[in-house]
Amino acid sequence: MAQTPQDSSVTADGMTAAQAVDRIEAAAHPRPHDRRLHARGAVYDARFVPSGQITKWTTAACLTAESEAVIRFSNGSGRFDADDRARGVRGMAVKFLDADKSVMDLVAANFRVFPSHNPEGFIDLVEALGKAGAEGGFADRAKGKLAAAGKFATVLAQHPESRGALKSFAGQQAPASFATTRYDGLHAFVLVDESGERRPFRYRLVPQLGEVEIDPAYAETLAPNFLIGDLDSRLETGPVTFTLVYQFAEPGDPTHDPSQAWPEHRPLIPAGHLHVTARSPREDHWQRQVFDPTRLAPGVEPSDDAMLAFRRHAYSVSAERRLAP
Ligand code: HEM
Q: What does this protein do (predicted)?
């Protein structure tokens, strides 16, 4: 069937979601039944307690009344044996539940802005990281640097918008804990109130414990998969809490491009707290589900960001493949 550029499963340059996932697989070598990215993760039970501060701007019940949630924390690599001691992407994916039914998902990562303004740029970066050995172990990183240099140079020439994000990312150490990492949703969304008035926003999940990076010398003493065990042991002494913070746009702020930050002085409103309580007893069930950033409750809508719409298709291709017998 002929596909048009308006079809959100195909990018403006003609890459389909299936082709994007093919390229991720070739670069990241996921195991057949794992997510094509964010392969290793663990699922936790949580409770959302709203602040009441956004109630007048949205009809979304899950944001305005207390609700149950599950949260999957992950290492962003496509490799199940990825090294938590190395710098890289960490994810936090939240599912608001109503009697076990998914009503809305938040999917966020430890970037401040996304490193590319279209899916092609992102896939090019995944390929460059694959070459850099970032998809391999701790010891392989230096070895991979040279091999990756040419690929990174090409990506940066084709996607100049990636420079700022990559530079700031390279200046960070790996997070010390899932509990001390800030995760941003990056795309714009829209809150809709009872009268139909629309307010564009972005969300971030801010750790109550503050942001803590790992000391590289201490990192060498940790297991390569230490992050899940770290969170499990923190939860033995009580919940770990994140504040869901909404940043509201002003006219002229770009809503279609997650690679462009909005000024930090835009209003930041706490929508509520997510208290992570314990490992989910139904972990196998939730691991099989998709956390989809476009699954939104009535009262929240997607923005005009084509990358956001494309992600839904890429995630379902990944899920189809990982759930195949
Ligand atoms: C075109 C852009 C993107 C593509 C093609 C892409 C691709 C993927 C794929 C294939 C998966 C595995 C899905 C599954 O099997 O369930 C995934 C998971 C994930 N992605 Fe993306 N991604 C993109 C952008 C982003 C952005 C902008 C963020 C952060 C805001 C992000 C954060 C995550 C997280 C946290 C997960 C793990 C979700 C979970 O735990 O189930 N991704 N991504």
A: Has an organic peroxide-dependent peroxidase activity.
